[in-house]
Amino acid sequence: MDFLKELGIKEKNFGASTGLTWFETTDNGELEVISPVDGKKIASVYLASEDDYEKIVETSQNAFKIWREVPAPKRGEVVRQIGDELRKYKDALGTLVSYEMGKSLQEGKGEVQEMIDICDFAVGQSRQLYGSTMHSERFQHRMYDQYHPLGIVGIISAFNFPVAVWSWNAMIAAVCGDSNLWKPSSKVPLTAIAVQNILADVIKTNNLPEGLFSLIVGRGSSVGEKFLNDKRIPLISITGSTGVGRKGAEKISRRFGKMILELGGNNAIIVTPSADLKMAIPAMVFGAVGTAGQRCTSTRRLIVHEEIYDKVKDSLIKAYLSLKIGNPLDESNHVGPLIDKAAVEMFKDAIIRAKEEGGKLITGGEVLEGEGYESGCYVVPAIIEAENQYKIVQEETFAPILYLIKYSGDVSIAIEIHNDVVQGLSSSIFTNDMREAEEFVSHIGSDCGIANVNIGTSGAEIGGAFGGEKETGGGRESGSDSWKAYMRRQTNTINWGKTLPLAQGIKFDI
Ligand code: UN1
Fold first, then answer.
1. Pair (273, 209) in one structural domain
2. Is the CB of 459 inside a 6 Å radius of any atom of ligand 1?
């Protein structure tokens, strides 16, 4: 496999690096990485020890001290070069993303494109780390706020976006003057190692300090615990399930650390009677089966008006029956495998639970066997007629299961159903009625961090702030002013006069 060679992935790899130096620990266990595409072993990774972790954090602290003194636009120049390197490796890295994680080759390359795009965005951002100035109430005083680099940013990423999520955090953190330490999902460590290798040339050419971009592949129970509890890491960004986020957040908040949480979603599309179904059907299908339903923005619920319910249901079944399921590296397939057999079990369990609660499976639900499906991770995307209050519908099952829910009455009824879940990431409405669309995005509309009109729930652009409300965690990353979370804010008041007036008119004569 040439792409592995191109990316510097060997049969056995080390799991911890400060940039150019890999820690050669071999006695702390070895992780075998199996591809969900064909069930074959891709390579293995030696797990990092707690001792490696200590050394990495110390190195990263030193790197921060050097990096924070580099002018922000010069930091941007380094990020620009990283973007250029990623352009060179787009095909190879995209292929590895697809092979290690199981998403389609197009999506794998698309994920690398998101990395390139965020680099471009961050370069511009490096010249726009703006604070505000305000008028002081005091005579001959000036007041303003400014943003300073924060320190080491910890990044815990999930398996489903093995590289893009790191870049949304790391590239923005880099222009903000922070060093970063990345702990990737242990299901997809090879893509992270490949990225670390891609960075090496830029680190060398620019003489960057070791520890500016660090990586650690280690056990959650040892290295992961230390990481969450570590006071030397002022900010940790966690992408993962609500369960993972809750455990992490409890530890981080105990030490008053900052965090960015991008957790589970339970994303829905509302389809009203005026919807253009030629647009809505492909959006629903892509949202529900794209990445085999393993995006945090995947469409999990459809809330369809009774007038068009049967039509939508029939069109969906037809579309689902035409889906090609198979090797994601073959671009004619629409749906690839789930990440592993445990995910397949969760898919099966969710269907059983939905049926127990009264749901009706109307298509899919099988696990595929035989030629091409040897990994045991391929399933047929399912649609289940259900009700929003079912316990299983209230949960995020990371698999291609779409719950079809009927509503009657006006759009506010649909919005009420829509918001009646604990998660709040992405949402969408298909309608040609301006009033319905505006109500959906208004203050009495969708309660999610992302609310779209005539676009599905997944596939957000990097330019917007990405994240959600309620149990999705409240964090924002990627575009807009998300950069502010990676810096510490300071309000400054300067007295350039010759008297000492106090605020609020207080007099203190001595
Ligand atoms: C995720 O699944 O964690 O909006 C992120 C999207 C992608 C990001 C998904 N740009 O679907």
1. no
2. yes
